[in-house]
Amino acid sequence: MNYSLHPEAESDLRDAAEYYRERAGIALAQAFFAEFERAIHLLLQHPMLGAVWLHGKRRLGMKHFPYSIVYSVAGHDIQVLAVAHQSRRPGYWRKRKW
Q1: How many other C-beta atoms can be found within 10 angstroms of the C-beta atom of residue 39?
Q2: Residue 91 lies in a domain
Q3: Which neighbouring-strand residues pair with 37?
Q4: 24 falls within a domain
Q5: What percent of the chain has pLDDT over 90?
Q6: How far is the C-alpha of 34 from the C-alpha of 10, rounded, in Å?
Q7: Helix segments in 1-96, DSSP class H
Q8: Number of compact structural domains in the chain
Q9: Partners of 14 in the beta sheet?
Q10: What is the pLDDT of residues 20-39, one digit of tens each?
């Protein structure tokens, strides 16, 4: 399995890490990136691990952070559409196309 980030999902990830860096320092931003990588590694091993969510997409919550990875599985690829905060702007990513 491989994964790819939608360009806007990449921006989501950067923005969230920057938020943590500005408010709590580089260590928390690095912890956020590490948790994202851990979650992606799990998805690469078990692509159906995340719960079925809106519009046939799947969602896997990140531990220790209020974010979910919103993705779909296409063949041998995991396509990450968003790294979405769990309570801010719900569904803002819905119009993203792969």
Answers
A1: 23
A2: no
A3: none
A4: yes
A5: 81
A6: 15
A7: 7-24, 26-45
A8: 1
A9: none
A10: 999 999 999 999 999 999 99
Separate counts of helices (H) and strands (E) for the chain: 2, 5
Q: Give the pLDDT of residue 41.
A: 97
Find the domain containing 57 and state its range: 2-85
Give 47-91 pLDDT, tens digit per residue. Answer: 999 999 877 899 999 999 999 999 999 999 999 999 999 888 777
* CA pair distance 91, 54, nearest whole angstrom: 8
Residue 88 half-sphere exposure, CB side, CA atoms within 13 Å?
9
**What would the two tokens of residue 82 be?**
């968003």
Domain assignment of residue 14, yes or no: yes
Count of all residues that appear for the chain in the document: 98
Examine residue 97 and state whether it is found in any structural domain, yes or no. Answer: no
Q: Give the closest residue to 83 by CA, choosing from 46, 45, 48, 92.
A: 92
CA 11 from centre of chain: 11
CATH number at residue 49: 3.30.2310.20
Q: How far apart, in whole angstroms, are the C-alpha atoms of residue 53 and residue 57?
A: 5
Closest CA to 2 of 64, 76, 65: 76
Q: Which amino acid is at 89?
A: R
